[in-house]
């Protein structure tokens, strides 16, 4: 019985460790200062006060301002943000958090 509980606890610890490691690894393509465009069409932000019915950022461009993989105080403590890439959109000028799959790199010809 004890061995079963120990194996279950060890298995859970390994799964959690693997999930945390995958969550805190920064996407290689997105670095601070990179221009990106939102490609996801199923996102609605309700924290933008000028859009009472919500704001859909699909097609909007912006700059990556932060990748949330470690705490803001600069410590080594990893965090696992649900949407780790913080982007400041050009119009309207608001900060929004995205997953890597919801963004695409913007080429020089597309930027406005």
Automatic annotation (TrEMBL):
Residues 1-19 form the signal peptide. Keywords: Signal. It comes from the Eukaryota. GO terms for biological process: photosynthesis. InterPro entries: Elect_transpt_acc-like_dom_sf, Fd_thioredoxin_Rdtase_alpha. The keyword Methyltransferase does not apply. Residues 32-102 form the Ferredoxin thioredoxin reductase alpha chain domain. This is Ferredoxin thioredoxin reductase alpha chain domain-containing protein. It comes from Chrysophaeum taylorii. The lineage of its organism: Eukaryota, Sar, Stramenopiles, Ochrophyta, Pelagophyceae.
């Amino acid at each position: 019985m004890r061995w079963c509980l120990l194996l279950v606890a060890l298995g859970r610890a390994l799964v959690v460790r693997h999930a945390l490691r995958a969550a805190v690894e920064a996407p290689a393509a997105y670095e601070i200062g990179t221009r990106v465009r939102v490609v996801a069409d199923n996102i609605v932000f309700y924290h933008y006060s000028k859009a009472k019915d919500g704001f859909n950022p699909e097609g909007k461009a912006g700059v990556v301002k932060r990748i949330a993989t470690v705490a803001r105080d600069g410590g080594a403590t990893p965090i696992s943000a649900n949407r780790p890439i913080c982007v400041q959109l050009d119009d309207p000028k608001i900060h929004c958090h995205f997953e890597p799959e919801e963004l695409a790199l913007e080429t020089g010809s597309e930027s406005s």
